[in-house]
Amino acid sequence: MFYDRLTLRRFLLQEYRTHGVEKDLVFLLEDIATACREISFAIRNGAFFGTLGSAASKNVQGETQKELDIFANDQFVSHIRNCSRVAALVSEEVEEVIWLKDSPAAGDYIVYFDPLDGSSNLDVNLSVGSIFSIVQLPEAIEAGDVASVLRPGTEQICAGYSIYGPATTLVITLGHGVHEFVNHLGTGEFRIVSGHMKVAEESAEFSINASRFGDWDAPVRRYIEECLEGEAGPRRKRFGMRWSGSMVVDIHRILTRGGVFLYPEDRDNRATGGKLRLLYEANPMGFLIEQAGGIASTGRARILEVQPTSIHQRTPVVLGSRSEVLRIEDHHTQMD
Ligand code: AHG
Ligand code: MN
Ligand code: MN
Ligand code: MN
Questions:
Q1: What pLDDT score was predicted for residue 106?
Q2: Whether the predicted model's global pTM rises above the 0.90 cut
Q3: Which atom of ligand 1 is nearest to the CA of 131?
Q4: Which of 40, 91, 160, 234 is the most exposed place for a label (fewest CB within 10 A)?
Q5: 150 C-alpha vs ligand 3 centroid, how far in Å?
């Protein structure tokens, strides 16, 4: 029943009491949840506001920005500003680090975010989402100290995403499992629907942009070919395939019913080392997948242990059910 379900606020206060989660982090997450509600509202009404289309600008990765990419970015920035502990923000849509404090900085939190993930889905009324990651530093940093913002994913204290789909949801981890909340339209509250999400150990569903087949390296091609061979092949079972065009949606499906998601480095994206971005796509999703018992790999190494060297750095991504990710890593080891 609806009223038996914990609100996000009560859940966060429980985390504060039982795991010592800081009150500032509780408030920060509530502010991020508010940003997500605002973005959800803007997307639902985007056709009336005329905001589903492209803006005139490009982001640092050379992608044409949607008006809603910029709107969502602004929502994240303005709500996160409420938290006095945040020193710096890193956004997909902003080239440089956004410093929230004048020097000397008083903040020890950094928030990384992809304000709108899968934004090419906006035109066709398919689901999109937002992704975020929070790192706490041992001490406050100086504004302009970019090196201090380049933290590996193992230092995340929180990660999550919101999906703007048939329901608006919020999925978070504070390092003690993965929890899913749904936004209730009457009260505006996020209420819990899944206490401890688990990625199924085994699965028979893969998620990859198969139009890039000709560009893949041999280990990825081998893995997918084995899946496609079905019952007659070495896997001895039939596989299903899904590709939504939005990482949040594909990862949410894997958290719900298992599977594996791949965006490998290939011949076409080798110059940038893959497509997806380490700090605000791969790391938060990797933390969530690990917290749910899955594996987050580059194909060769644990994503969370990659030491970033620049804020918009890209990485190959293999996320999901243990047995599938291990098999893909094994193919890389054997064929390298
Ligand atoms: P974004 O919209 O934030 O730029 O991210 C898009 C990403 C990711 O969500 C998705 O999995 C992938 O790009 C889709 O790539 P293809 O266009 O190759 O399908
Ligand atoms: Mn983009
Ligand atoms: Mn994205
Ligand atoms: Mn995006």
A1: 74
A2: yes
A3: 3
A4: 234
A5: 19
User: Which ligand has its closest atom nearest to the C-alpha of 73?
Assistant: 4
In the chain, DSSP assigns E strands to 54-58, 64-66, 86-91, 98-99, 109-117, 128-136, 156-164, 168-173, 178-183, 190-194, 205-207, 240-241, 260-263, 295-297, 317-320
Tell me the CA–centroid distance for residue 225 and ligand 1, in Å.
23
118 is in an annotated binding site: yes
* Ligand 1 atom at shortest distance from the alpha carbon of 243: 19
Segment 232-276, tens digit of pLDDT: 999 999 999 999 999 999 999 999 999 999 999 999 999 999 999
For residue 105, the one-letter residue type is A
Q: Is 117 annotated as a binding residue?
A: yes
Return the residue matching tokens 């938060």. 284
116 marked as part of a ligand binding site: yes
Three-state SS at 113: strand
Q: What is the mean pLDDT of residues 52-76?
A: 93
Average pLDDT of the segment spanning 130-143: 94
The first and second tokens of residue 301, run together, are 């190494």
Give pLDDT, residue 103.
62
Pocket of ligand 1 (CB under 6 A): 63, 92, 114, 117-119, 209, 245-247, 275
Pull the structure tokens for residue 76. 């994240």
**Residue 262 · residue 285 · CB < 8 Å:** no
**Closest ligand 1 atom to Cα of 245:** 14
Q: Is 119 annotated as a binding residue?
A: yes
Measured CA to CA, the distance from residue 286 to residue 278 in angstroms comes to 10
